[in-house]
Amino acid sequence: MSRRSRKATPETAAARPTVTICRGCCCGTAAKVPRLDHEAQLTDLRTSLAGVAMVRRTDCLDACERANVIVIQPSTEGRRAGGRPVWLGQVNDPGAAADITTWVRDGGPGLAEAPDILDLYTFTPSRRVRHELED
């Protein structure tokens, strides 16, 4: 099987939730968030969500004051059910990443209720920032 055929097609990628992890100028740096193993957080999310969600790393989500930022985008089915992207900021605790994993494994936005604890991390970014992520 070639590498090309193993990659997720747009149809299969959209069928799953997408977890976007900011790792730019502030998020993912020890200078901004010193007591977190940023690479371990990313690796843990990729490992625990393999086959369940597409986990991608991005340079900057332009919400640096809320480092570390993670956005959970619904699957196609989740979007049809009314799910919308959920922005989480200050995800600097291993327990928060575990809660995110549980929620996404249960279906994510639109299909499963987020654990109440994630309300502490949820925020609404500017319209410009939201628009850029969805493009």
Structural write-up:
The protein has 135 residues and is α+β, with helices and mostly antiparallel strands. The protein has one domain (16-134): Glutaredoxin (3-Layer(aba) Sandwich). Helices cover 34% and strands 14% of the residues. It contains 6 helices and 5 strands, in the order H-H-E-H-E-E-H-E-H-E-H. The chain has helices at 3-6, 10-15, 38-48, 76-80, 94-105, 127-134; strands at 18-22, 54-58, 70-73, 86-88, 122-123. A 5-stranded mixed beta sheet has the order 2-1-3-4-5, covered by helices on one side. Strand 1 (18-22), helix 3 and strand 2 (54-58) form a beta-alpha-beta unit. Helix 3 (38-48) runs parallel beside helix 5 (94-105). It starts with a helix and ends with a helix. The model is unreliable at 1-10 (pLDDT under 50).
Task: Name the descriptors.
disordered N terminus, single chain, alpha+beta, 5 strands, Glutaredoxin, 135 residues, 6 helices
Low-confidence stretches: 1-10
* CATH fold node name: Glutaredoxin
Class per helix and strand makeup: alpha+beta
Count of extended strands: 5
**End-to-end Cα distance:** 31 Å
Q: What is the arithmetic mean of pLDDT?
A: 87
Total helical segments = 6
The helix fraction, in percent, is 25-40%
| CATH second-level architecture | 3-Layer(aba) Sandwich
Number of domains: 1
**Spatial arrangement of strands, main beta sheet:** 2-1-3-4-5
Order of helices and strands: HHEHEEHEHEH
